[in-house]
Design a protein that fits this description.
By secondary structure, this protein is α/β, with parallel strands linked by helices. The chain has two domains: 269 residues, Rossmann fold, CATH 3.40.50.2000; 185 residues, Rossmann fold. The protein is built from 18 helices and 20 strands. The strands form four sheets. A nine-stranded mixed sheet has the order 3-4-5-2-1-8-9-13-14, with helices on both faces. Strand 8, helix 5 and strand 9 form a beta-alpha-beta unit.
């Protein structure tokens, strides 16, 4: 099958978010199964300045109308490190900026225009590719208007929308609907209008041929008032087109037995290399190596939904204990400032780094003993998959995909390999941390749990098979109609 994936994030961007990893691993796995898969994403400044990434101009340009203005879309082509074909949509007026969605915690004011342009430009690319495409697979709100445009222009393309994070919907004031150039009949209750506003994600849900999300628990959560972020009613009405496909981990990049970015490699049978990585991590960040309490770590976005509102009140309580804490990530300026202050207060115990660094991210995974996942929402739990493979036991709130990935440790039954809390609160998360801290004191038990965690496998093969079946169902339904 010929498939084009459309996403605002993907390789070669350097980000802590899961979407970049998905856009590398899923197309790669589908290509290995014999499908022709490409990815379209904006040509950001970060990509343009990446000298290691080779790209060429296709010399194809298209005029794209956004409201009353016309912009020129240029298309470049390249390949990711894993060989995935990339098409880069260039419009410097929209994408030649320091950030992707905004700067310093503030979204760009013209994000509606930017991603309406991107959706239209990506669709124009899809119409020009040969042989003809069969499937357009969109990811999250930034590409969610593509199915709307496909329906409006009656194009012979099947569409799939994957919801990675329902809280981000692309909600803009109603007048921005004019930028779509769609007939006014689309700005209704049965269209892209949602309480008087333009809602990208709602449009995608209504007009995509199929909708997927990234774990079965998350599929259930987003159909309820607490997890649907306002769109739960729309999702329940369209539940017959909503499928859950648990995503996998890219073990070609994230595997301590073959990770070239580590000072020492290891696996569940030979754990000595993990101790070497732990020492190297503490030394690099100038943290005290003794006494030997657990090393906690996080590589994530600093936003409320990742649980920082319940984690921040715990920092002093945690760091007065015999522990080390390492956090890598950027996001809300208030959290960035608070973490920077705490790192100065506990210089030998806590290190905070804002700017993402690939090598450091891998070293954190390998060097930490415990990973903290206090998230309010964790749709797929991809970070937990990586941490388990590296032998970093998770302390996590049970939400979304976390419940499919982590089994809570039960000493009575001697089962499990993580520490879950079921209430979204500071005290509940602190209780889970204390449980992990107590078990860490018994190194024989801890080593057993580490080996049990590392034995877990979440490859992309199963997810790719599920997507393949979904695509075939759509294309097959089309063939049956034609027959």
């Amino acid at each position: 099958m010929r498939i084009l994936m459309i996403s605002a994030e993907g390789p070669p961007l350097q980000r802590t978010g899961a979407l970049v990893d998905v856009m590398e691993a899923l197309p790669h796995e589908l290509r290995a199964r014999g499908h022709d898969v490409s990815v379209a994403l904006p040509y950001y400044r970060e990509i343009r300045e990446n000298r290691a990434f080779k790209k060429k101009d296709t010399r194809v340009t298209v005029d794209v109308q956004v409201g009353d203005k016309t912009y020129v879309a240029k298309y470049l082509e390249g390949r990711s490190a894993g060989g995935v074909q990339l098409f880069l949509v260039r419009c410097d007026e929209f994408f030649d900026r320091p950030g992707i969605y905004g700067e310093c915690g503030q979204a760009y004011e013209d994000n509606a225009a930017r991603f309406i342009f991107f959706c239209k430009a990506a669709l124009e690319l899809a119409r020009r590719l040969t042989p003809p495409l069969q499937i357009l697979h969109m990811h999250d709100w930034t590409a969610a208007l593509v199915p709307v445009f496909v329906r409006a222009h009656n194009l012979p393309l099947k569409t799939v929308l994957t919801i990675h994070h329902v809280a981000e919907q692309g909600s803009f004031w109603g007048l921005d609907f004019n930028l779509t150039n769609l007939p006014t009949s689309f700005f209704t209750l049965r269209g892209v209008e949602f309480f008087g506003r333009l809602n990208f994600l709602k449009g995608g849900i209504l007009y995509a041929d199929r909708i997927t999300t990234v774990s079965e628990y998350y599929r259930r959560e987003i159909q309820g008032p607490s997890g649907g972020c306002g769109l739960d009613g729309v999702l329940r009405e369209n539940a017959h087109r909503l499928t859950a496909i648990l995503h996998g981990a890219d073990y070609t990049r994230w595997n301590p037995a073959s990770d070239r970015l580590l000072p020492a490699r290891y696996d569940a049978r030979r754990l000595r290399g993990k101790e070497t990585c732990r020492e190297a991590l503490l030394k690099q960040l100038k943290l005290a190596s003794a006494p030997r309490g657990p090393v906690f770590g996080m590589a994530t976005r600093l936003v409320e939904e990742k649980g920082f509102e319940i984690l921040m009140p715990l920092l002093d309580r945690l760091l007065w204990d015999d522990v080390r804490l390492i956090i890598l990530g950027e996001g809300d300026p208030a959290y960035e400032t608070a973490l920077a202050v705490a790192s100065r207060k506990f210089r030998t115990k806590f290190a905070y780094m804002k700017n993402y660094d690939e090598k450091l991210a891998h070293l954190i995974e390998a060097g930490m003993d415990i990973t903290l996942i206090p998230s309010r929402f964790e749709p797929a739990g991809l970070s937990a998959m990586y941490s388990l493979k590296y032998g970093a036991l998770p302390v996590a709130r049970a939400t979304g995909g976390i419940q499919e990935i982590i089994e809570d440790y039960d000493p009575t039954a001697d089962s499990g390999y993580g520490f879950l809390c079921y209430e979204y609160s500071t005290e509940a998360f602190w209780d889970a941390i204390k449980r992990a801290r107590e078990i860490f004191r018994d190194q024989s038990v801890w080593t057993t749990l580490v080996k049990r965690a590392m034995a877990r496998s979440f490859s992309w093969d199963a997810a790719a098979q599920s997507y393949e079946a979904l695509y075939k169902e759509l294309v097959g339904a089309d063939d049956q109609v034609a027959a």
